[in-house]
Amino acid sequence: MSEIVVFGAGGRAGRRAVAEARRRGHAVTAVVRAPARYTGQRDEAVRVVAGSVTDAALAAEVLTGADAVINAAAEYGPGTDPSSFFPAAAGALVAGVRHAGTGRLIAIGLSSFLTDVDGTSPLAGTELPEDFRAFRDAHLAGLDVLRAEGGDLDWLYISPAGDFDHRGPRTGRYTVAEHGDMADRISYPDFAIALLDEIETPRHRGVHLAVTG
Asked: How many angstroms separate the CA atoms of 82 and 74, rounded?
């Protein structure tokens, strides 16, 4: 049994990551901003902790003794500042993982800056809302922090090749995609399988990995 820390454990991807980890017998530290509102799995092997992924001191504390960490936390919507959140989260995790000696860091991200088979963005020519453009650019800034500061760490940035199938079931199947394709879909439970597979049997390191159903 491994000890896995999940930041953003109350979100859609985070809850599925906790559930998949417990299905496989791993202990989980679920980090959420408001534990009273946490609706994910709770049992004797799930410890719920209050905090933000941008808190480097908290990251160092909860990652001590952990085997892996998944960052499923996000900040998006009115009154938020994703441009500072995602780089700060990546920086805090890099520092926390390095301090604690955690073996594996996996960050959940976006597909929108992957290229398609022609080498262009899948969203090329699409008029993007300003808030989504800022959200996308902030995610990329977080990935850039991992690339620049995480060279000595075992990290992976993973996203759907296109988007999530928000109501899709757990089929137990997924495929690694070579390119971005906004028509591709993967369910949250199957995405969680990909996350846990990469913790238990790492096959990709230091890259942006895309998966689809």
From this structure: 8
